[in-house]
Each structure stands twice: as structure tokens, then as C-alpha cells.
């Protein structure tokens, strides 16, 4: 049975072993349709770990966004209030470190590395056998454990997050991105130049643009309603 032909065991054994493994592992295990292919090629392991890597990618993105939005609160974005799940900085009093997001980020980086090992190991097979199967299984299981721990930790952490609504409103009102829809009417160069001339003051930029384009601020504001800013395309 070493290379999937079944030459070393009776047929009844090959069928029965699957049932026994189901009972032991309490998992719905099925016999591969092509045992020779399943023995020679470990591409299924590469595919499975690829899915684990995709999960790690998403966890990395989520954690990085939380860390970025929680930066501050005075000198950065500060739109999310991070919970103090651990004693903060030993240098700066009152500082809250994003320890859980950074824990998840580091685990994700490890899984990225595991994926490289698994991919290269799956490609190392020679003819009927792949002698690197043990390391493939080892790092696949290790990635599963890391991601399980990361998901559990991040799920609990997210429940403790709070949103600074006032800070969000301030950042929104001060952002020159509010004038983006006007590009569709006056061009990118005109709007960008006006924003710079107004030193990124939104009210002043609207006044300058209205003067340049021989219109009024109220007319410009009509082009900045929420539907025009969040809908599909502009009208």
C-alpha cells in the first residue's frame, strides 16, 4: 500500500481502514478516488494550506486596520478606542498598546512562512513518494493552531473596541476627500490646486472654487450629497 496500489494489503483492509479512522478521529474521512495520485502528489495539502494563508491574509488586514484606526488618540487617527487588555508602555504613561492585533499580525506572518515551506515541500516528491510529507503535516497543523488562537483572541478583542464618534466626525469634516465629487465637474487639476491654495481648509476651498467657476457655494454643496459620494458612479 506504500505507493497506493494496494499490493501489500487485502481489499477489505483498504475499505475497512477508512471506517476505523472515522471512528477514531470523529471526522468524516473519505478514501481518495485515485490512491496512486494521492500518494504521489501532495498538491491537496498545498491547496489546504493556501486556504489557511488566505485566512491569515484577512486576519492581517483586519488587525492592521484596527491598529491604524486606533493610533493616537491625539497625534494620529484615533477613531477607534483600543481596550487596555495588558499593562501599557513602560516609558509613556497612559499609552495603550494594540497587543492583540499585533499578536495576530505576528501569527499571520508565521503562517505566511509556513505556506512557503509547505509549498516547496509538496513539490519535493520523487516519482511515487514524497519524503517531505511529515514536515508538510507538521506545519499545516501548526498553522491551524496559530490561526485558531488568533481568531479566538481577535473575536474577544473586537467586542471590547469602542468608537470615538466625535473624532470620526472631526476627521471626516476636515478631510479634503469630501471635495472628490467636484473633480467630475471641474477636473482634478482645478480642484487639487484650489484645495492647496486654501491650505486644505474645506470651507475656504469651496469659496475659492465658487469664485473661480462663477458659481455659488450652495450649488457646489448640492454636488456633495451622500448619494453622489457613495453611489455607483456620478450623476
Automatic annotation (TrEMBL):
The keyword Translocase does not apply. It comes from the Bacteria. GO terms for molecular function: aspartate ammonia-lyase activity. Keywords: Lyase. Pfam families: Lyase_1 (PF00206). Its EC number is 4.3.1.1. PROSITE patterns: FUMARATE_LYASES. Residues 1-113 form the Fumarate lyase N-terminal domain. InterPro entries: Aspartate_Ammonia-Lyase (IPR051546), Fumarate_lyase_CS (IPR020557), Fumarate_lyase_fam (IPR000362), Fumarate_lyase_N (IPR022761), L-Aspartase-like (IPR008948). One of its GO terms (biological process) is aspartate metabolic process. Signal peptide: none annotated. It is an enzyme of class 4 (lyase). One of its GO terms (cellular component) is cytosol. This is Aspartate ammonia-lyase. It comes from Fervidobacterium pennivorans.
Amino acid at each position: 500500500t506504500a505507493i497506493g496500489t494496494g499490493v501489500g494489503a487485502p481489499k477489505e483492509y483498504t475499505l475497512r481502514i477508512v471506517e476505523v479512522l472515522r471512528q477514531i478521529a470523529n471526522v468524516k474521512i473519505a478514501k481518495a478516488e485515485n490512491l496512486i495520485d494521492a500518494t504521489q502528489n501532495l498538491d491537496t495539502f498545498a491547496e489546504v494550506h493556501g486556504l489557511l494563508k488566505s485566512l491569515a491574509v484577512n486576519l492581517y488586514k483586519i488587525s492592521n486596520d484596527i491598529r491604524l484606526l486606533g493610533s493616537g488618540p491625539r497625534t494620529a487617527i484615533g477613531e477607534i478606542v483600543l481596550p487596555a487588555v495588558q499593562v501599557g508602555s513602560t516609558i509613556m504613561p497612559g499609552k495603550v498598546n494594540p497587543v492583540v492585533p499585533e499578536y495576530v499580525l505576528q501569527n499571520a506572518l508565521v503562517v505566511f512562512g509556513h505556506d512557503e515551506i509547505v509549498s516547496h515541500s509538496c513539490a519535493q516528491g520523487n516519482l511515487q513518494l514524497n519524503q517531505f510529507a511529515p514536515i508538510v503535516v507538521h506545519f499545516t497543523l501548526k498553522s491551524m493552531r496559530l490561526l485558531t488562537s488568533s481568531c479566538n483572541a481577535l473575536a474577544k478583542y473586537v467586542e471590547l473596541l469602542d468608537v470615538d464618534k466625535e473624532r470620526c466626525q472631526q476627521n471626516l469634516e476636515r478631510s479634503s476627500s469630501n471635495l472628490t465629487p467636484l473633480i467630475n465637474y471641474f477636473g482634478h487639476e482645478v480642484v487639487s490646486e484650489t484645495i492647496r491654495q486654501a491650505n486644505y481648509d474645506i470651507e475656504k476651498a469651496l469659496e475659492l472654487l465658487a469664485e473661480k467657476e462663477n458659481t455659488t457655494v450652495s450649488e457646489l454643496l448640492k454636488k456633495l450629497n451622500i448619494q453622489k459620494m457613495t453611489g455607483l458612479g456620478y450623476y
